[in-house]
Amino acid sequence: MTNVLSCNRTLEDLGSDYSEIVTKDINLAMIGITTTTLLNKSSCKEKTLKLQKCTSDDTDVVRKIHKMICKMKHLRLNQTNDLVLTVLHSLGCRCDEKQVRKSRHLRKRRSANRQKTKKLCKAEAILSAITVCYQRLSVKAALSRN
User: Fold this and answer.
1) In degrees rounded to 5, what are phi and psi of residue 28?
2) What is the tens place of the pLDDT at every residue in 114-129?
3) Which residue among 28, 42, 105, 123 has its CA within the 20 to 30 Å range from the CA of 112?
4) What is the torsion angle, in degrees rounded to the nearest 10, for the CA atoms of residue 105, residue 111, residue 116 and residue 118?
């Protein structure tokens, strides 16, 4: 039985994409973020971001992944560009342009280094949440094959 999810991709396709493609880009993005924060001699404080977390009984994991990857896209970080493109291609979705326009109006008062560190920390938190969602999605895909 094929479960069709939002953005016209099946659960099986997304699970396969995760295990074959997305995990590599997640790891590369995490390495890039960690390296950059270390080079900037800064670290991410334990701060709770209001991200939608995936739980084992979620019915629409894809929607949550899509929302988080669009948040990441709006951060416009070189370290996450490939991941964003890979995930959006895998999901078969695009991000809403209204959200992009909103994120362009960042406050200018913050120093460039502090602002970049804040973006990197947000991206790191989003990466962790997306990883959990994809792991849950991959489990669901494996169970649906059986």
Assistant:
1) -65, -40
2) 788 888 888 988 998 8
3) 28
4) -80
